[in-house]
Amino acid sequence: MKQNIIQEKSYAFAIRIVKLYQYLCSEKNEYVLSKQLLRCGTSIGANVEEAIGGQSDKDFFAKITIAYKEARETHYWIRLLTDTGYLSEKERISLLTDIEEIQKIIGSIQKTMKKKMTNE
Questions:
Q1: Distance of CA 105 to CAs 10, 49, 84, Å?
Q2: Would you state the pLDDT for residue 6?
Q3: CA atoms within 13 A on the CB side of 26
Q4: Can you tell me the distance from the alpha carbon of 86 to that of 80, in angstroms, rounded to the nearest whole number?
Q5: CB distance 65 to 56 below 8 Å
Q6: Kind and range of the H or E element at 84?
Q7: Residue 86 carries which DSSP code?
Q8: Integer angstrom CA distances of residue 104 from 61, 94, 97
Q9: Which pLDDT score, from 0 to 100, does residue 119 have?
Q10: Phi-psi region of 54 (alpha: psi -120 to 50; beta: other; left: phi over 0)
Q11: What is the torsional sign of CA 64, 69, 71, 72?
C-alpha cells in the first residue's frame, strides 16, 4: 500500500492528543478545555480517513476541508491551554510545530484538489 503522509501524521497527532488529554485530566484536573482539544485534535485524522474513502473528488474535498478546519481549531485550543498555564512552552512548541505542519499539508492538498476540480 502506498504511503500516505497526511494519513500517518494525522493519526500520530491524534495519539499525542489522546495522551495529552489523559495527562490534562489526571495531572492538571482540567476537563473542559482538554475535551475540546480531544474532539478537534482527533477529528483531523478521522476526516482525513473519510476523505480518502470519498466517493468523488467533491466528497474528498469536503472532508479534507473539514480536516483543515479541525486543525485550525486544534491550533486555537493548544494556544489557549498554553496561555492559561496548562501547557508548558516546550509542549506548546512541539504541538504547534506538528499541527502547523498538518495544516500546511492539508492546505496544499486543498489547493491541488481545487485546481483538479476546476480543470475537469
A1: 10, 15, 29
A2: 98
A3: 6
A4: 9
A5: no
A6: none
A7: S
A8: 15, 16, 11
A9: 86
A10: beta
A11: positive
Q: Can you tell me the distance from the alpha carbon of 3 to that of 119, in angstroms, rounded to the nearest whole number?
A: 26
Please list the ranges in the chain whose pLDDT falls under 70.
1
User: What are the Cα distances from residue 68, in Å, to 10, 55, 74, 101, 120?
Assistant: 11, 19, 10, 11, 23
Q: Which of 111, 110, 44 is nearest to 75 (CA)?
A: 44
Contact 99, 74 (CB under 8 A): yes
What is this structure's pTM?
A: 0.94
> For residue 1, what pLDDT is reported?
58
Q: Please, what are the domains in the chain?
A: 5-119 (1.20.1440.60)
- Nearest alpha carbon to residue 77 among 103, 40, 107, 46: 40
